[in-house]
Amino acid sequence: MTAQRPQRQRPPSSFNSAQPQDFHSEFPPYPAEPSYNPAIPNRELPQQPAWEPDHDDYDDSPDHDDHDDFFSGSPSRGLQHQPSFHQEQLPPSSLATNSIRAPSPPASGPILDHSHLRPGKQAALLSHERTLELYRANAKKTQDPELQFEFAAFMIEASKSLPIPPSTPGNLLQVEKALEKREDLIKEATSLLKRLADRGHPASQYFLADCYANGIGTVKNKQDFDRAYPLFVLAAKHGHADAAYRAGTCCENGWGCRRESAKALTFYRKASAALHPGALYRLGIAELNGELGLSKSPKEGVKWLKRSAEHATAEFPHALHELALLHERGIDNVLFVDFEYSTELLAQAAELGYAPSAYRLGECYEYGKMGCPQDAALSIHYYNIAAQQDHRDACFALTAWYLVGSPGVLPQSDTEAFLWAQKAAEGGLAKAMYAVGYFLEVGIGTSVSMPDAISWYKRAVEKGDKRAAQRLKGSLNQPLPGGPGAVLRRGENESDTGKGGKDKDCVIM
After folding, report:
1. How confident is the model at residue 127 (pLDDT cuts 50, 70, 90)?
2. Bias regions of kind Polar residues — which residues (predicted)?
3. Angle of helix 225-237 relative to helix 241-253, nearest 10 degrees?
4. Radius of gyration of the chain (CA)
């Protein structure tokens, strides 16, 4: 009697087919794109004939189809029967008997050989012109308005970054050719956008209107709201929230149309229905201040601001800042004072890059306001966020920090102090203009230059700075404030400073 051979048990699988697993919770979905697979032979696209930009080359006819998987929008066609690296590769016998696995690869070698993916010696990035040609060829072949719109937007962005050589007597021809190339890109892009807009594509309608509003593709590159406003309205009717908001701003300010508050409110409310943070913020401010024909209603205004703050973006962080200011002082029977929540709102706006919020937080952490501890690192951090966006008060605050430094946080540097003061002065801050004049007179962070110092003093006087006026009234030869060469005044009785026991302000500030 022959003993029966025991059946080999497959190890238990961690995948339970009875309970579908949600892979998207760990790996976000990606759009289907044709990817390299070594099992598929390489295919070469047919060479495209030379082509000059012309909007008639974009074929919109439904009969146009080159049966190419890449342009037909079905990249997975032809790949559905290819094996996946994530599936078990079993020999034909194992599919039926479910008993014998394919032999494992040797441990010494790699499981997957990626040597064919390594760039060769001839590898190089495509030139800007070649990239544009390939993008243009693909846009010509597709019937998808979204892809054609993306190509038009790409050309507009490419025109902005197109390098223009500096104009010199010897390269006027090169400059002219570069400008002509930029104009050709803009002309081709706007031509394509017009065709898409005429076909009712909302994104193209809005983008073309935005170009006109910013002087792109217009006569002498001037803003043309007469052409922009109708396109904003058209895109708003198709449900484009940004277009509805921009149409509201046009009606409110009379750009390309009559100034009509009632019509502006209609567009703002249409955009707010789509939770547009800019429209929600504008309605909130209008309710708070009684603007656009509305009566004052702080309660309703706060409601709109809260909704805007919930959907704040880097482009529209204003509601966060406004709510923070309201919680700082409170509104009777509407909003209570809450410093902790106010600083939290300011931090959210600062993280979105809103300069006024970052500057306000820098002040709080410098002087210990609104319940914040005095923290040099945080103060400098938030000042720097605002200063990077040319917030002139933040730039001048960094001047003060660099003059004294902060051990372990910021090294003392007269040069940096002068440069930040100069940046604030160029932004139009009167006390910064006086400070730059003082630095140039004394030689702090820069070489002494009395003519430049007098020039900055004069500019400060024009802004109403009284100290600069005193320096110009024959007192330039008198001792400088605080004694010979003195720059800082550190109070002996710091309790009188009113700045949390810290006084690092310069006399010149």
Report:
1. low
2. 1-22, 73-101
3. 140
4. 33
